[in-house]
């Protein structure tokens, strides 16, 4: 079998024009599919960045919340009620909101403010400069070193700014796992300072972060919170809710889906058509092989090998090209959101296999129909 | 001489009902090891259809074909493919060489189909290219060869698996007179042996002198088999 596959390989790659056209079709399709889905994955990860960075196992929120940036304040009694639920190890308040800071050069810059529980600082980021205790100092804020920090003029420890006529000072620089979707720099402070500095409605708790005593307690906590008229979600459930919002309620997911389908069809039509032409041009040769003594299944193996080989090379080139462009884009535009996930790679791989299967199916049908007698007859 | 091929009452038709046309009708003949048998006749007389049935390519509607005492049409499709691979060598009218493979790789195809090691197959192919006088062209693409050279590559491919039965379809149709005669000299003197039977379908009366016997066909029937006086 190895020998006949080698013949198939040589027939394929020695026909440089056709082979290049086949590769271009599949590479293009894979590139577009992976690129589209990676951009969407990047957006989804960024949209859940607060949830990822704070790391709480459970989040309590108003049932109308559909993404982490649009919190609906909770009454203080909900915090007490959640703390009293059996199975809750601890529960802390979180302030999450937006504000305008005035920089020393007079420019106003919108920022995201996260106010951590004063007692536990639960969800605090990892500091790369400064000490976490300094967050309790007067006017203290910790800035996140991400793609957006340059919008604050690349602050260092000691940099001052104004926030609603309050003086603010950077006491630490932190790093986090994911930066936000909306291109805003992030400042951490304590919960009490956040509600003091930022004009707030009657209720000030954006979310309650919960640590259950055990994984088994999660269901009970969720049902008890539901009885209070609120919603408790695990970290994964909350991220899924946010993802669903962007997928189904913003039109973004539908557009990406359409673009992915179009990419698939473009790739299928280019490579399918080229492969079909390749088979047609070699049809007499396949017939001659049959006449010489090749069995039908050997010809099928040859065609499947050619299709699979082209698909795999095209897949590799497409993924490589996509990663290269994402890397280059991130160098030029740091906040560019695109993430190649294993799920995306697996999806594109399945799609490319489908392209190869459909293309080879057409070829196989043709080759199996050719009769050696037709070759003999000329 | 031993009987290589024994065809009995071979019939093949195409179409059904009023449209049924007989390509070959009740043809019987024997061919022997060590002889060159020409099948001649006008276009549409059934020569190619007859050879296709004898070589395991086209199933007859009735009649039997015994090759080396085996009724080939009682075999399964896979066994018939094996039969063609092991017992029959074809030289097609248009050669059907693969332009994307080297000359040696083209010749090695039957051995590769027989699952022989690639390198060994290429070595054997080069030996047969040497036999047909083309060893120095082994690494060239067939398109770089002349018509006569391509014909010899096709002959080397037909020979490489050492078949008992060699079938040539119009071997000189696209060659000039001199080249055609040289090819036939080569077939007669170097290819034919006592354990091989060669069947040649041709229109070309210039090469009839190389036949041991000539079978004439008209309208799907045999109209006579003549033995050449000088053979």
From TrEMBL, chain A:
It comes from the Bacteria. It is found in: Cell membrane. Coiled coil: none annotated. The keyword Hydrolase does not apply. It is a multi-pass membrane protein. The keyword Membrane applies. One of its GO terms (cellular component) is plasma membrane. Residues 23-227 form the MacB-like periplasmic core domain. Its main location: membrane. The chain crosses the membrane at residues 20-45, 256-279, 299-328, 340-364. Signal peptide: none annotated. InterPro entries: ABC-4/HrtB_transporter, ABC3_permease_C, MacB_PCD. Keywords: Cell membrane, Membrane, Transmembrane, Transmembrane helix, Transport. Residues 258-372 form the ABC3 transporter permease C-terminal domain. This is Putative ABC transport system permease protein. The lineage of its organism: Bacteria, Pseudomonadati, Pseudomonadota, Betaproteobacteria, Nitrosomonadales.
From TrEMBL, chain B:
InterPro entries: AAA+_ATPase (IPR003593), ABC_transporter-like_ATP-bd (IPR003439), ABC_transporter-like_CS (IPR017871), ABC_transpr_LolD-like (IPR015854), MacB-like_ATP-bd (IPR017911), P-loop_NTPase (IPR027417). SUPFAM superfamilies: P-loop containing nucleoside triphosphate hydrolases. Keywords: ATP-binding, Cell membrane, Membrane, Nucleotide-binding, Transport. Pfam families: ABC_tran. CDD domains: ABC_MJ0796_LolCDE_FtsE (cd03255). PANTHER family: IMPORT ATP-BINDING PROTEIN. It comes from Nitrosospira multiformis. The keyword Cell membrane applies. This is Putative ABC transport system ATP-binding protein. GO terms for cellular component: plasma membrane. The keyword Protein transport does not apply.
């Amino acid at each position: 079998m190895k020998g006949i596959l080698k013949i198939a390989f040589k027939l394929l790659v020695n026909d440089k024009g056709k082979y290049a056209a086949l590769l271009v079709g599949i590479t293009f399709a894979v590139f577009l599919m992976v690129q589209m889905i990676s951009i969407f994955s990047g957006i989804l990860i960024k949209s859940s960045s607060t949830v990822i960075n704070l790391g709480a196992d459970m989040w309590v929120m108003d049932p109308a919340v559909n993404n982490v940036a649009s919190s609906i304040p909770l009454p203080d009694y909900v915090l007490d009620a959640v703390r009293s639920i059996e199975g809750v190890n601890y529960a802390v308040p979180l302030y999450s909101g937006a504000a305008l800071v005035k920089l020393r050069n007079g420019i106003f810059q919108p920022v995201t403010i996260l106010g951590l529980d004063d007692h536990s600082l639960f969800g605090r980021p990892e500091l790369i400069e400064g000490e976490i205790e300094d967050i309790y100092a007067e006017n203290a804020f910790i800035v996140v070193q991400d793609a957006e920090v340059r919008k604050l003029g690349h602050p260092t420890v000691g940099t001052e700014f104004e926030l609603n006529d309050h003086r603010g000072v950077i006491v630490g620089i932190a790093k986090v796992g994911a930066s936000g979707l909306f291109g805003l720099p992030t400042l951490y402070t304590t919960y009490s300072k956040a509600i003091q500095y930022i004009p707030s409605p009657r209720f000030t708790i954006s979310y309650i972060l919960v640590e259950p005593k055990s994984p088994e307690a999660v269901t009970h906590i969720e049902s008890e919170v539901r009885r209070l008229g609120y919603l408790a979600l695990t970290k994964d459930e909350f991220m899924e809710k946010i993802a669903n919002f962007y997928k189904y309620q913003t039109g973004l997911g539908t557009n990406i889906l359409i673009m992915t389908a179009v990419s698939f069809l473009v790739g299928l039509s280019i490579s399918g058509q080229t492969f079909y032409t390749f088979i047609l041009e070699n049809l007499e040769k396949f017939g001659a092989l049959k006449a010489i003594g090749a069995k039908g299944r050997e010809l099928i193996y040859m065609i499947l090998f050619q299709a699979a080989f082209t698909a795999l090379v095209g897949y590799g080139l497409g993924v490589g090209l996509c990663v290269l462009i994402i890397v280059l884009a991130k160098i030029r535009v740091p906040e560019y959101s695109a993430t190649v996930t294993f799920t995306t790679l697996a999806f594109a791989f399945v799609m490319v296999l489908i392209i190869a299967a459909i293309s080879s199916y057409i070829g196989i049908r043709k080759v199996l129909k050719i009769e050696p007698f037709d070759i003999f007859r000329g | 001489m031993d009987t290589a091929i024994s065809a009995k009452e071979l019939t093949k038709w195409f179409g059904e009902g009023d449209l049924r046309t007989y390509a070959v009708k009740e043809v019987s003949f024997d061919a022997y090891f060590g002889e060159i048998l020409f099948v001649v006749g006008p276009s549409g007389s059934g020569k190619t259809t007859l050879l296709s049935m004898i070589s395991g390519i086209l199933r007859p509607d009735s009649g039997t074909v015994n090759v080396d005492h085996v009724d080939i049409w009682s075999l399964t499709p896979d066994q018939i493919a094996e039969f063609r691979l092991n017992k029959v060598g074809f030289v097609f009218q248009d050669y059907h060489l693969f332009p994307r493979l080297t000359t040696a790789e083209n010749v090695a195809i039957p051995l590769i189909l027989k699952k022989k090691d690639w390198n060994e197959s290429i070595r054997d192919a080069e030996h047969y290219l040497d036999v047909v006088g083309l060893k120095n062209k082994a690494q060239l693409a067939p398109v770089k060869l002349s018509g006569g050279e391509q014909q010899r590559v096709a002959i080397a491919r037909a020979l490489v698996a050492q078949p008992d039965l060699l079938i040539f379809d119009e071997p000189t149709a696209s060659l000039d007179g001199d080249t055609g005669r040289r090819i036939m000299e080569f077939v007669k003197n170097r290819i034919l042996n006592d354990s091989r039977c060669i069947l040649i379908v041709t229109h070309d009366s210039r090469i009839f002198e190389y036949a041991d016997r000539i079978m004439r066909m008209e309208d799907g029937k045999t109209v006579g088999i003549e033995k050449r006086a000088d053979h």
